[in-house]
Amino acid sequence: xxxxxxxxxxxxxxVVAAGLGPWAPxxxxxxxxxATTCFTVTATVHLAAAPNAVAVNPQTDAVYVTxxxxxxxxxxxxxxNTVTATIRVGGNxxxxxxxxxxxxxxxxxxxxxxxSVIRxxxNTVFKxxxxxxNSFPEGLATDSQTNxxxxxxxxxxxxxxxxxxxx
Length: 167
Description:
The chain is mainly β and 167 residues long. It has strands at residues 10-17, 21-29, 41-47, 51-57, 62-67, 72-77, 82-88, 93-98, 105-109, 114-119, 124-130, 137-143, 148-153, 158-163.
């Protein structure tokens, strides 16, 4: 007999590309949401073509999803599971992470060999960081201890360390 255990404020979202069917499950915070059965899809959010990577800002409950095919980042309200903004970034966005000490969002743009920096409060790109030519960044990770973003560069077989200056 399988037992069902209540989850505490977790919402599972299946990200669906327009007309393409389910793409990849992701987790999102859902404060204030009634406890639900664990590992149950509670919402499906339709996005632009080819959603690829997901990052969550736990302070704002904003869910950020890169759309590889559209060159955009969709912002989803984690409480209501609705798209609140669509932000154009560089070519073929892949990895995404929330900044270590701010609400800034960092997006790896594979084709451009750049990282877009989005201000989470305004949902606008305010800076583009150029990586070495033909880096083709894909994955991003945050180190909150050193205030550094790391980009896995598929084209050059390297990892770029990007120092993030305080505001």
